[in-house]
Specification:
About 50% of the residues lie in helices and about 0% in strands.
Length: about 140
């Protein structure tokens, strides 16, 4: 059975959304790993700074304010745990046949789905509470 325009539109929009979700997941994983690695590097640097402070009897800060906060709050451990508890593409996506709604006609284009909207944009009316108050005429 051939898909209606409505069902084809759903399928196209869903594929795009899944692709965007996967791209965002990959980026989050990459940045989380980079942040965890940089916190580890800051910990290595702090160990060296601490050894130098003791050897030369000086008092130089072992962390920057940012790396100290990240280290103290256990961000590295949380990132490593989250990365270890999930894998890329772990959520299986099954395409269920969407019911043929809207009489088989596609819905209007929507910029949320990366579609260009043709024509003049619709601007919603101003909320009632934002409208200027009308002067009331006193009845004699």
């Amino acid at each position: 059975m051939a898909l209606t325009a409505y069902q084809t539109q759903f399928k196209r929009r869903m594929k795009r959304a899944i692709k965007l979700r996967a791209k965002a997941d990959a980026k989050a994983r990459r940045y989380a790993q980079l942040l965890a690695d940089s916190i580890g590097a800051a910990e290595d640097a702090a160990a060296q700074m601490n050894a130098l402070n003791q050897l030369y009897n000086v008092d130089v800060s072992t962390y920057t304010l940012l790396t100290q906060a990240l280290h103290a709050n256990g961000v590295k451990g949380a990132l490593v745990d989250e990365l270890g508890n999930s894998t890329p593409g772990e959520e299986l996506v099954l395409f269920n046949q969407v019911a043929d709604g809207n009489g088989g006609q596609p819905l209007p284009d929507n910029p949320l789905f990366g579609e260009l909207v043709a024509g003049t944009p619709i601007t919603p009316p101003a909320p009632a509470d934002a409208a200027p108050a009308k002067a009331q005429v006193a009845a004699d």
